[in-house]
């Protein structure tokens, strides 16, 4: 599924469409260049799922945890990882297989540890500054 996003005000609708598209899947992998808007889109997803607290990038903490209406949301940013063993050390399996939402930025850093099924979200910045979101079920 492809979805053009002209500005930040359209992210809420895009987040709602992604949640419907995902169905029961709770693992989301976000791909895009630095500054493409991965964290900003994840903030919109969190709001759509009922998170009322402030959300932020887990760049330095690696993981942030939020309480949604019914479930927890784990937001990962693996950009700073040097090797997959660092994700093993933090017990990634407990999060990924908890049945809670997992939003994962920079999943290419842990490619060998990814689950078999997930939603892939590609965010591409177009020449005019708009974003093209592509959702794929894997």
UniProtKB/TrEMBL annotation:
Its main location: cytoplasm. The keyword Magnesium applies. NCBIfam families: T6A_YjeE. Keywords: ATP-binding, Cytoplasm, Magnesium, Metal-binding, Nucleotide-binding, Transferase, tRNA processing. It comes from the Bacteria. Belongs to the TsaE family. The gene is tsaE. GO terms for cellular component: cytoplasm. This is tRNA threonylcarbamoyladenosine biosynthesis protein TsaE. One of its GO terms (biological process) is tRNA threonylcarbamoyladenosine modification. GO terms for molecular function: ATP binding; metal ion binding; transferase activity. The keyword Secreted does not apply. It is found in: Cytoplasm.
């Amino acid at each position: 599924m492809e979805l053009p996003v002209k500005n930040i005000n359209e992210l809420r609708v895009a987040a709602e469409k992604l949640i419907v598209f995902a169905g029961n899947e709770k693992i989301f992998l976000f791909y895009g260049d630095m500054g493409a808007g991965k964290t900003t889109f994840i903030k919109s997803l969190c709001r759509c799922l009922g998170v009322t607290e402030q959300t932020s990038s887990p760049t330095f903490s690696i993981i942030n945890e939020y309480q949604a209406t019914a479930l927890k949301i784990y937001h990962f940013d693996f950009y700073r990882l040097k090797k997959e063993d660092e994700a093993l050390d933090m017990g990634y399996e407990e999060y990924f297989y908890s049945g809670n939402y997992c939003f994962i930025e920079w999943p290419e850093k842990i490619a060998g540890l990814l689950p078999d099924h997930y939603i892939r979200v590609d965010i591409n910045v177009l020449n005019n500054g708009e974003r093209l979101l592509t959702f794929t079920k894997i």
